[in-house]
Amino acid sequence: DTGVSQDPRHKITKRGQNVTFRCDPISEHNRLYWYRQTLGQGPEFLTYFQNEAQLEKSRLLSDRFSAERPKGSFSTLEIQRTEQGDSAMYLCASSTVDTQYFGPGTRLTVL
Amino acid sequence: DAKTTQPTSMDCAEGRAANLPCNHSTISGNEYVYWYRQIHSQGPQYIIHGLKNNETNEMASLIITEDRKSSTLILPHATLRDTAVYYCIVRVENKIIFGKGTRLHILP
Predict the structure, then answer these.
(1) Which of A13, A18, B64, B78 lies 20 to 30 Å (CA to CA) from residue A68?
(2) Which of A40, A104, A103 is nearest to B99 (CA)?
(3) How far is the alpha carbon of B86 from chain A, nearest alpha carbon, in Å?
(4) Going edge to edge, which strands form the sheet with B102-107?
(5) Measured between alpha carbons, how far is B77 from B59 in angstroms, rounded to an integer?
């Protein structure tokens, strides 16, 4: 257990529905990251926060995706109008300056 | 794209040292080499990182060549629980760019 928690661990939804995932980072970490991992691939960077500011977004983060970190603590990742291609593991990580520590991930299945 | 290349898979006998190689020939002078591993269906687990000196912790040792173009992760006494995908990463600013890693099989 790294101290990074994610909720839920598993989510099954129907195509077209909206889903929201939560990440609670290690408490003293001011940086928070979201990654997506599809089967057989390494995780891919989605976005990065320093405190409450979203400082970088990947081109993978389409306009159906939105991430927030309102008080610089926990973060949410919302996917609107889900598609079958959104099925993946969504990973959250946190850090101070350098080493990122990952949570257990949320596995999303879109039917 | 990932800045590292690793073998797709490796086998190691239980109790022996597992030596996982990584090439990072385009690494810049201030970029660190990181190693993570991912056991099936779990999040990546940090193992070790280094800049140019060799590093050791309770999990592993990291040997970086003098020209920094390659490195080796050493698990000194591999156990079945070390079966995982091992990722060698050159950290680029604030994000980690993962490759496909090395799938390490520990053989009983």
Answers:
(1) A13
(2) A40
(3) 10
(4) B9-13, B102-107, B84-90, B33-38, B45-50
(5) 10
Provide the shortest C-alpha distance from residue B84 to chain A (in Å). Answer: 13
Residue of A3, A1, A32, A6 lying closest to A89 (CA atoms): A6
As given in the structure block, the two tokens for residue B59 are 């999990």
The whole-number pLDDT of residue B74 equals 98
Q: What is the CA radius of gyration of chain A?
A: 13
For residue A48, give the nearest of B46, B94, B101 by CB distance.
Answer: B94
Contact A51, A32 (CB under 8 A): no
Q: Say whether pLDDT at A76 is over 90.
A: yes
Which residue out of B1, B36, B94 would a mutagenesis test of the A interface target, given it has the greatest number of A Cβ atoms within 10 Å? B94
In chain B, % of residues over pLDDT 70 = 98
Tokens 């926990």 found at: A74
- A20-65, pLDDT tens digit by residue? 999 999 998 999 999 999 998 999 999 999 999 999 999 888 899 9
Q: State the pLDDT at residue B1.
A: 62
Q: Does residue A110 register a pLDDT over 90? A: yes
